[in-house]
Amino acid sequence: MYAHILIATDGSDLAQRAVEQGLALAKALNAKVTAVTVTEPWTAAVSGEWAVAFPVEEYEKATAANAEKILGGVQAAAASLGVTCDGVHVKDQYAAEGIVEEAKARGCDLIVMASHGRRGIAKFILGSQATRVLAHSAVPLLICR
């Protein structure tokens, strides 16, 4: 059915549920996993006075350390289940675009990610990365809430 599953995570508790579901599915299907976390460009994440207090070099160090922690946790969980898992930190991208591009580049046949399930004005203002992935991905998407 699925041979290569991409699991997107930002390290949040909500994303952890998607990680657990994705790894369980991978184990059941004997599929390999690529865990992905995406870091927004510094210019999008830091602006105004924060740019002076948090220079680009510090931002890159902090995001790299955070990505290593997030992906290390997924890889450890995968190893405990006997699932093969690569970890990828996609830098300087917006989440949805980075997820879709990485899934395509690695030949993944399923994307697993979480969604906050926002509705109405909150969805309009904050957007939905899951909706964007769904709109732009050529592969199926499993959304965990």
UniProtKB/TrEMBL annotation:
Recorded GO CC terms: cytoplasm
InterPro entries linked to this entry: Rossmann-like_a/b/a_fold, Universal_stress_UspA, UspA
Regions that span the bilayer: none
Residue ranges annotated for the UspA domain, each copy included: 1-145
Cellular compartment(s): Cytoplasm
Keyword set, alphabetical order: Cytoplasm
Record-linked PANTHER family: STRESS RESPONSE PROTEIN NHAX (PTHR46268), UNIVERSAL STRESS PROTEIN HP_0031 (PTHR46268:SF15)
Full protein name: Universal stress protein
Organism of this sequence: Hyphomicrobium album
